[in-house]
């Protein structure tokens, strides 16, 4: 929750900054009240996503307000960069005794609005253009001569008013192209009211996998009713692992609830260390956990999401500060002679603004191969 309140404070401050920049250029006038009211409404609009708003109600408002959220954040990035640059250039011009009018506040503000538009367009495009991260691992824990096993990881779909059937169909096609043996979903499938999401559930059921479709919960499953979220995941064709493990395709897959979800559900199902201590580790062991907090126990591969890569640059530095890992593959310190690896996905969807900037969405394809004899 600390990150959430930090983001909330930063988002509110960004609107104050935009307002002050406008006032600095245009001065007081009649424009203040309508523009100020718009900025205030937009700054507070995120609370709709937390309430249980029925599907169809306020969907249009959510689309407008969260699209504005993305634009506002990019605009503030431009304003800060250009404000600082303009200040330095004005100081330089003053020291050199030249005209500083070229670097006036009005020009800086205008340039920020101009630059933020193509940045927004790129962010909208990038949010809908997932890349594929491919990781090949060889292990002696698979029988020699056995066929390679393909795991596809997806996360953070955030099914909502902004990520509906059309977006899910694009994701389904991307997953189908990878022909997964095992499809794993590592949390935050849902985001918003689940009433009436039958079409979305049907598309999710069509996500293919030869052997199994497995899921764990994320923190957003807690915000809209744990029982409803679990029912939707089941309707979508996934088996949810809640502090349990099973053998699939010759490997062990263990999964735990997100700690926020477990707290909301009043359950003791988020302890990955305890689960792995009770798990047979004689096979290659994959841990599914929404947040990238590796437990200090043996395992072979951990798959996580949650961070979105910050979603809008430079947010990735904040997520790295909190979790201590970057996106993609990280080799963790060995434990009990077990080589451990962590893969953090940027996720396929987005939270809040329908925008990603320099943080491309992704799906992860892990190919497990037996060590050649």
Question: What can you tell me about this protein's structure?
Answer:
With 373 residues, the chain is α/β, with parallel strands linked by helices. The chain is built from eleven helices and twelve strands. The protein has a six-stranded mixed beta sheet, with helices on one face. Helix 1 (2-26) runs antiparallel to helix 2 (32-44) and helix 1 (2-26) crosses helix 3. The radius of gyration is 23 Å and the shape is elongated. Residues 50-57 have low confidence and may be disordered.
Q: Brief overview, please?
A:
The chain is α/β, with parallel strands linked by helices.
Record the SSE blueprint.
Layout: H1 2-26, H2 32-44, H3 59-96, H4 105-126, E1 131-139, E2 149-154, H5 165-177, E3 182-186, H6 198-205, E4 212-216, H7 220-223, H8 226-235, E5 239-240, E6 244-248, E7 251-255, H9 259-264, H10 272-277, E8 285-288, E9 301-304, H11 315-323, E10 328-335, E11 338-344, E12 362-370
Parallel strand pairs: 1-12, 2-3, 3-4, 4-5, 7-8, 8-9, 9-11
Antiparallel strand pairs: 2-12, 6-7, 10-11
Helix pairs in contact: 1-2, 1-3, 3-4, 5-6
